[in-house]
Structure prediction request, 228 residues.
Amino acid sequence: MNVRIKDLPINDRPKERLVNLGVSSLSNDELLSILFNTGTKSISVKDISLSLLKYIGSISNLKDITLKELVSIKGVGVSKAVTILSAMELGRRVYQSEDVKVSTKLSSPKIIFESYANKVKDLKQEVFYALYLDSSKKLIEDKLLFKGTVNASMVHPRDVFKYACIYNASSIICIHNHPSGNVLPSKEDLNSTSNLVKLGKLFNIPVEDHIIIGKDKYYSFYENNIIK
Prediction:
């Protein structure tokens, strides 16, 4: 049955329900209907929304959907697909936009994990940040030094220490994510960290920790006595 929004009683329409009862009162298909805005000549916006929900299985899977998958769903053209992808990206940015403030004291791996987890844990690619600290362990600046493939994070030590000199940092902490969720360091992680630690001693700007962030946990080289 092709149920059209305009055929519903006014108080049962998604936009009116949002205004009267608040956004949290809407079902997933109602929220999608608002984003899609209209249906097609043969398919109502509600049925398009239900088709999308059926396709993804769980609403949490919407975050991984692609443009190609969206337009493969009957009734979802490029315009509607772009709207959904834009909404998902905006939501991601809202939850990742809490940048760690300069002068925040990063005195433990747990504090660093809590400060940066939302920024990197859901990314599909590895990213590498260097955190530059003053003598009181307060953040001077953080720098995104690499964004790469799913299973490789290659950072040139020159870049790490170049910014340490620019910011006059007393120490450095490195963080990167593992999109797989497995936070155990790879052989590459161990080798690159060892090289950074050696250079830190040479420049008298110690690399105090390297923290790998997964979905909901972390691995600290310092806590595991790899950096001493």
Q: What stands out?
A: Residues 78-96 form the longest helix (19 residues). The chain has a mean pLDDT of 88. The helical segments are 14-21, 28-36, 45-56, 67-71, 78-96, 109-120, 157-166, 187-203.
